[in-house]
């Protein structure tokens, strides 16, 4: 069974509000979530409203590259 082309892949969601405010990537000030998506059903980048513990509100979290 081939493991390279799995249908479900792990993706990392990152808060877009924290990134726009100029927080650097090295500091622990960006909210991130790990989830899975189906590659066939959603080939584009995933965006979900999740709670950001640094902004203290629900914001858009977008998919980033690993």
Automatic annotation (TrEMBL):
GO cellular component: chloroplast; ribonucleoprotein complex; ribosome
Pfam families: Ribosomal_L33 (PF00471)
Signal sequence extent: none
Protein name as annotated: Large ribosomal subunit protein bL33c
Source organism of the structure: Paris polyphylla var. yunnanensis
Key word Transcription present: no
UniProt subcellular location: Plastid, Chloroplast
Any Gene Ontology biological process: translation
Major subcellular site: plastid
Gene3D superfamilies reported in the protein's UniProt record: Ribosomal protein L33 (2.20.28.120)
Superkingdom of origin: Eukaryota
Keyword Oxidoreductase: no
GO molecular function list: structural constituent of ribosome
Keywords of the record: Chloroplast, Plastid, Ribonucleoprotein, Ribosomal protein
Family: Belongs to the bacterial ribosomal protein bL33 family.
């Amino acid at each position: 069974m081939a493991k390279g082309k799995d249908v479900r892949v792990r993706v990392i969601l990152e808060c877009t509000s924290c990134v726009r405010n100029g927080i650097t990537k090295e500091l622990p000030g960006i909210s991130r979530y790990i989830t899975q998506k189906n590659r066939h059903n959603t080939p584009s980048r995933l965006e979900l409203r999740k709670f950001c513990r640094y902004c203290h509100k629900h914001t858009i979290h977008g998919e980033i590259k690993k």
